[in-house]
Major facilitator superfamily (MFS) profile domain-containing protein (Actinomyces viscosus C505), 519 residues
Amino acid sequence: MAHMYAAHSERRGSRHPFTGDSLVRLSTPGIDPTSARLYCSKEDTSRMPMRRSGTCRTYQILSLYGWTGSTRCLNTQGISLMSARTLVRGPIVRLAAVSLGSNIVDGIRVAAFAVLTTAYADSALEVALVATVATLPKTFLSIPIGVMLDRWSKLRTLYLVNLARALILVGLAVALHLGAGSILLLCAFALFFGMLEELYDAASVLVVPDLTEPNQYLKSNATIRWVQELGNGAIGPFIGATLVGWSATTPFTLSAGVLLIIALALHSLQRSHLLMPDQSSAEGQHDEGRQEDAQDECVAEVNSQPKAATIETRTRTFMKELWDGLVVTWQNPFARNIVAVFGIWNLFGWMPESILVVYVIEALEGGGDTYGLLLAITSVGALVGGLALLVTPDTVSVRWVTVLALGVYALTLAVPGIWPSFWVAAVAFFVQGLPLVLLSGALSAQIQLTIDRRFLGRVYAVIGTVGSLGTTVGLALGGVVADLTSTPFVFVLGGVGIGLAALVSALTFSSTTASIKDD
């Protein structure tokens, strides 16, 4: 039971879609971060991603306050050497492919690491300790990571993080081969790998606007989310559980090799020059920032305190950027409401997750096989629901997508608590997964369309931090409520709480759109 709980606590979280997966043209003056209105000056039009000779592109975006934004006719002089379709499909397909490989590795690691932990742990408390350590980076480092990603190249970050993850996995495999395994070693591995995983997850979402056009944000984000569920939920855990039965080192050695291949693919994508135009502008702004830093260093040298002055200046700059991200999140109505909705969702959604294995054993009179089957059924539901994106229009209402998805989630969470039965739970969990991919894509796209790109990483980090805090409290609260009442009651209570989140989204999300309408 102990190792099943550890695997569940880490893998099952993928069902909550807002895990830190970037957005609109933050570096352009045409975006007002406090609303969804799009303004373009004549100077801005030369930097828009789509150009066609003799044509006029009109974009329309709905305001967060229910107001239909103005449309602008963009100046599109010149002939593009690459069609928009080629620009969108090429990089996103390649990003989805590497995302699939990376998430298969995550699934392998989760299953193998959980089984490995039970071999060294003397109690369930030690198993839970390792699982808890792995979540600490997401809770405490999300905002600093967001600040750093707003400065760094996202593709280069993905490339370097995969290299680092491969090296850590090789180190773990060597240590296990030499017989140096222990709970302390596993905790250290969980901490460092968790830091790199949080950095990778955030960058993989924030890189989307660098590779595609605004009217493709919805399907691009949802595609990435779909392959994540496929790799992390349907393929990886099964492979990991099988490989760790052969040898303790096999799953980690194989995963390191896969990550090295993925790193090379990302390096190739970075050098392919398929970034959207304002990515280069952003990098230019970073270059200017670095030049300013260099000037500050020169001044500091003249003052005979170069090192101290540089550290102090950069520390002030870092803290200012962090504070700016908090302010932008608070001032943007959609981002502020997202924080509230996902805080409530994670709090109540993780309550049943923490005691699911106990529910299976006590209420359903099942075992480990039943528990694993229910996890797989949920992932299958998300994958099937993701296929609906093939017929999803480019523009959808974020309000009604969120209300529908959370309403379905609340109902399918409460029903297994009211009627404890394997088949009831199986059908409920399958239906529960259906709208999650669309919800993830819609919310990510809307944030990308309404937040100034300069602050995008920090806004995501704020949302992720609040969600992580809700997760931590929800896990603990689920166990307490189960001990005081019963495991089925925790499911009912969780369904009621998520129903509250659906109500909040219905009242606070205006008639927003998850995509720019391309007329």
Notes: The first strand starts at residue 58 and ends at 60. Residues 1-89, 276-292, 294-308, 515-519 have pLDDT under 50 and may be disordered. The beta strands are 58-60, 72-73, 517-518. The chain has 19 helices and three strands.
